[in-house]
Amino acid sequence: MFNVPIMTLKQPVRWGILACGNIANAFATALKDCPDSVLHAVSSRDIKKAKAFAEEHGATRAYGSYEAMLADSEVDAVYIATLHPFHLEWIAHSVQAGKHVLCEKPLTMNLREAKRAKQLADSKRCLLREAFMYRHHPQTQRVVDLVTSGVIGKVRMIEASFCFDSGTNPESRVQAKALGGGGILDVGCYPMSFARLIAGRSQGRLFAEPLELKAVGHLDSKTKTDMWTTAVVRFEGDVLANLKCAVRMQAENLAVIHGEKGCITVDMPWRCPGTIRIELNEKNSVQEVAMPKMRHLYAYEIDAFTNEMRGQPIGADAVGMRFDDTLGNMKALDWWRAEIGLGYEADTVR
């Protein structure tokens, strides 16, 4: 059982947002699409920024420090939107204050920190989950359902990419090492999680772990972080995956699942919804499934989290992010980083 009393169906979950950056803005917007949630408080190191954010999104309270918001007894759950290197620290402070935590991906900088975060949350009987918005979207569920239906036969290979060009900006959060910059942690976690999901479901399990992983990448001479990189992964059953990510390179962001009878292409796998295309070899046919936009992309992960707070776990076959899946993804990302020689201060054993 959780430390904070289980919420009643009539009582909305009162959220506090920790840090008021761009991703927090998307989350706050999505909360308006979630009738079982309400934005109660926001916090920033800059009180003016917190007040402006609160006014824009209708929050009841604005705090000029994270600590002050965590001391608010009326906050039930916290969404952590800080930079990656500070996730573990504020997970620790949040659960110490008795708050359930939904933390933006990546949950932490590495597997060791993720295990520590879970240990801390469990010790305070608080719910802790990693916010992976696309994993809770109906489009991802539809893709998995197509794979498990056998429409393309046995899965042979998975291709997935998430790339963008952030320009020459070595001090930005997506490039600076001290801020957790680099492609693998920022966007490589998406194709890795997708490959593990599909490889697992093709073998009758919730997700799969790499048996082999080989990678190459370009580390910037100034930032020492990965600007573009690609990994080749082998899973059980010789299901292979070709994954790429970049923060200094534009590319078409797609996910393609190749099977013995055809392939499934998802043209907007991360910023759902998009179009799912099924191409079958023998029939020489192409079927397109356009996924309608019904709700904000982030609304689905919010609902999944609040349902867990109320004692309603993720469905047995649902594609939402469970914590053991988070641990598997962090382990795979550690492996990918090791292959290209990318380390952070958090990797230093203390």
Q: What would you say this structure looks like, in words?
A:
There is one protein chain. With 350 residues, this protein is an alpha/beta fold. The protein has 2 domains: 13-131, Rossmann fold (3-Layer(aba) Sandwich), CATH 3.40.50; 134-296 and 314-344, Dihydrodipicolinate Reductase, domain 2 (2-Layer Sandwich), CATH 3.30.360. Helices cover 31% and strands 25% of the residues. The protein is built from 9 helices and 14 strands. The chain has helices spanning 22-31, 47-57, 66-70, 87-96, 111-123, 138-149, 183-202, 299-309, 323-340; strands at 13-18, 37-43, 61-63, 77-80, 100-104, 128-131, 155-163, 212-219, 226-235, 239-246, 255-259, 262-266, 275-280, 285-290. The strands form 2 sheets. The protein has an 8-stranded mixed beta sheet with strand order 8-9-10-7-11-12-13-14, covered by helices on one side. A hairpin with a 4-residue loop joins strand 13 and strand 14 (285-290). Helix 4 (87-96) packs parallel to helix 5 (111-123) and helix 5 (111-123) packs antiparallel against helix 9. The radius of gyration is 20 Å and the shape is globular. It starts with 12 loop residues before the first strand and ends in a 10-residue tail after the last helix. The model has no long low-confidence stretch (mean pLDDT 95).
